[in-house]
Structure formats: structure tokens, C-alpha cells
Amino acid sequence: MRRLLPLLALPLLAVLLYAGYRGLAAPPDAPSGEVLLANGARLAWTTCWFEVPEDRPTHCAWFHPASSAGEQAQRLPVVVFRHTGLDHRPSPVLYLAGGPGGGAWIGPEQIEGWYYWLEEVDWPHDFVVFDQRGTGMAEPRPDCQELDALYVDMLDDPLPPAEAAAAGLAAATRCHRRLSAAGHDLAAYSTPANARDARDLMAALDQAEGQPADAARWNLYGVSYGTRLAMEIQRRHPGRVRSAILDSVYPPDMDATLTWPGLLQGAMERLFTACEADPGCRERHPLLRERFPILLAHLARQPVDLSLPHPYAEASVQLRLNDERLLYVLFDSLYQWDAIGELPAALDALWRGDSQRLEPLAARHVGSVLDPSFSDAVYLSVECHDARPFDRQAYLDAVRAHPLSAPYTAAADHADVCASWPAARAPEDFYEPVRSSIPTLLLAGEMDPVTPVEWAEAAADGYPNGTLLRFPGIGHSVLDSDACAVTLARRFLANPRRAPRADCMRNLSPVQFAP
């Protein structure tokens, strides 16, 4: 009889494990009703505005941030992707989108991308995504039709830098006046306001699940501007935060305007240096650095007209590729790991009069320019709140320090858009480097043109329990670009108080340049 016990125990154990798995994997009951916080913030569950796959439990809600008397009410969409399985961990991840002004891609046409992404990263946590104030599906959603129209016009009819800066300033001024007259409270859009919303959203979701009011169980995952928002939450509202992943770090003490001349020139130099360090690229394109200023001068005199597919319609877009537009195509291409390696060959072909190889990169650039999910009104409101008052002399000093980009940045010294875009102003301590003991993983792509690795290095000084990882050959948004980064983030979330074992980084390679 005893000899039969092991044979009976194995199928019994399998049945028990399967029953336990079924209990975990069964979709949780869809929540209903409302959660009301003491400060008036409210979470109202609703039927999702998209079709939910049977095997991917997902819940949706509208979050109503707290507002004072006379303040414009906000309504933010929230999606909770439930993780089910034996390895489920009770510490959810809150995603903080970039921008500012960028949506979180949770509309009906976009949501499928999140299911694919979550399948790829395979984090054993519930994952919460929401649109920040004024972005995506949030209500109200202020838009700058004036700037949108200017961007479209300038695709095939570019203006000289000084005229373009003046036209942009005039369009922004008209937009602000129109939105203000329509009742939009543009001072409601700021990083501290977004941080309070995130704090209250976490509290409401905790209350909905019966979690303790003081439970520090949330993991923050911010990308680009989302890292600045995550850092503000760490600084002002640390009570609910277990850990943070800061991907492509944008610290609050970095000024977007003053750093622009250096960023634009740094993008060019980063590409030239990477090509020169690669034997194959150096052999194929030995004069890349020397020829580039000559190519810009040629395009200034004789632009190239391209006909490209419209990224959001069944139509074509006409793009006049002049010197400044080429710079922006290069800059945007450095965001994306799979585009960086194409640049030297595309630039060399353009030097020989062949624009065909550059066209896919130019089409990506047009897609970012025409992105309908981006709100310039929110971008300007948040950035003008976060930025110090414009210092013209400091800006001119930055322009002089970067002569390669100077012809394209000097004109902005008279275009103080924030002077024409009244917004709330950040308190002085906003600009202090963030210091936090919360375990934090900082990820930086060494080819990133807009949040360079130096920013992450400076921010890391404020994190005694932080780990900074630099990824060669990667541009912006590291987790979307590298499988090793996904593995390390998973290890970090499993035990944030221990630096993740980074053995997979030994196999990373620099930019793979196309022949």
C-alpha cells in the first residue's frame, strides 16, 4: 500500500496544482461602482471601450482627479491589465507616458499594442496605464490647431529658421488665446498636478482592492517625460512607491530650451563618432563627418522634394528636404535602434544624389510631426511650468558653444514661447536634483539624442539605492529596444533592493551599421 502512495500522490498533486492555477488564472470579477477618496478624487469603473480578449483579464475606469472650487474638472481613462498565474506578484506597475503631451496609447485602435508588449516583457504584475491630463482620451483635451496647421504647411514649404521661430511663436500665441477664451484652464497642466493624479490613482486602486492606506506596493515605470513625473512622485509622494524604473531619464533640473543647441549638435557628433569607431562603417563612409556640413549647405541651396506615404491616411505627403529638415530626420532616427544603423549609408547616398535610402527615415519623421495623439497645448503648458524663466544670454552662450547646430538654433533667442504662453510656475525647489532612497533602476541608451546618457548619470547621484545601466547602440526608450533590458527590469522588479545581475549586458554590441 505504501509503495502505491507516491504513484497516487503525483496525479493528486497535479490535480491540486491545476486547481490552484485555475483559481489564479480565472478572470477576476469585473469591478463596478465607484471609489471616493477623502480629497474628492474619484475612480468610476466602466465597461472597456475596446474588446477585451477572453484570456487577458482587463478592467477599465474613469479617474476624476480632485479639484478645488472653480477649477476645471478632469476625467482620465484608466486601463488595468490583470496578471494571472502562479508567479503573480501583488505589487502592480504604474506606467507613466512620455511627452509631455503624449498619450498612453489606450484608445480602441491602439490597445492591441499593449497586449503584445505585455506578452513580450512577461512581468508577473498587474499593469496600470492611464492618460495624463489633456492627453489621449482624457477630457478635456486642449489642442493647438494653429500649430498643427503650421507643421503641415512647413513640410513642403519650409521657412528660414528665424521666420519659422516667429511663425511658431505667433501660432502658439493664437492657440493660447483661443483655448483661454473657450474656458480651458491651461495652468491645470503641470508635472506636480500629474504627480498628484498618479498618487491619488494608486490610492483609489488600493482602496478598491482593500489594500492598506499606507502600503508602499507600487512600482513606477516612466519613459522620457514619464521619468520626470516618476521622480516628482518619488520626491513628493513616496508613501506608496516600492520601486521605480526610469527609462531615458529627463531630470527636473534639465532645461529643455537651454539644452537644445547641445542636444542637436550632440546628435550629429554621436552618429559620426559611432561610425568612426566601427571598422566597417569607417571604411565605407570615411568622410561622413567632413561631408555632412557640405551636404547641409547644398540642401539649403537646392532642397530635395520627396513624396512619402501619409502615416495616418490613405494619401501621400510632400516633404521638401532642406538642410534643417535633414537635421530633424537625423535627430528622430537616433531615437530608434533599428533606424540608427541606416543613417550613414542613407547620408552617403544622399551625397551622391540618391534620396531613396533616406525616404523610410524621412517617413518616420513625418509620422512623429503629424502624430494626432500628441497635444502641443499640454506640452507647452507643462514645459512652461517646469522651465525657469528664459535667460537669453545663457541661451546665446549655449548656441555659441555648439557652432555646428548654431545656424538652426540661434534664431530661437528671440522666440520665448513661454512669455506668450502664460502658465503656472514651478516652485524653486522643483529644480533641485531629486534625492530618494526608493530602489530605482535607471536605463540610458548611449545613442539617445534627446535624453542623453549624461542626464541619467547626473540623476543617478541622487539615488543611493539606484542602479544605472548604459546600453550601447540604443537610442530612446531602452525597454522597447533591447531584450536584455527587459530581462534586467524583470529581475529588478522581483527584488528591487538588490542590483539586478547584468550578465546579459556582456553580449551587447554597439550600433550595427547597414552596408
Question: How would you describe what is shown here?
Answer:
- The protein is α/β, with parallel strands linked by helices and 515 residues long.
- The protein has a domain of 254 residues: Alpha/Beta hydrolase fold, catalytic domain (Rossmann fold, 3-Layer(aba) Sandwich).
- The chain is 41% helix and 13% strand.
- It is built from 18 helices and twelve strands.
- Helix 3 runs antiparallel to helix 4, helix 5 crosses helix 6 and helix 9 crosses helix 10.
- The N terminus is likely disordered.
- What structural class do the secondary elements suggest? alpha/beta
CATH superfamily of the domain at 37-142 and 184-255 and 440-515: Alpha/Beta hydrolase fold, catalytic domain
Strand count, sense and closure of the main sheet? 10 strands, mixed
What is the fold-level CATH name, i.e. the topology of the domain at 37-142 and 184-255 and 440-515? Rossmann fold
Shape: globular
Mean pLDDT: 91
Write down the secondary-structure element order. Answer: HEEEEEHEHHHEHEHHHEEHHHHHHHEHEH
| Strand order in space, largest sheet | 1-2-3-4-6-5-7-8-11-12
- Low-confidence regions: 1-27
Number of helices: 18
Estimate what percentage of residues fall within beta strands: 5-15%
Please identify the top-level CATH class of the domain at 37-142 and 184-255 and 440-515. Answer: Alpha Beta
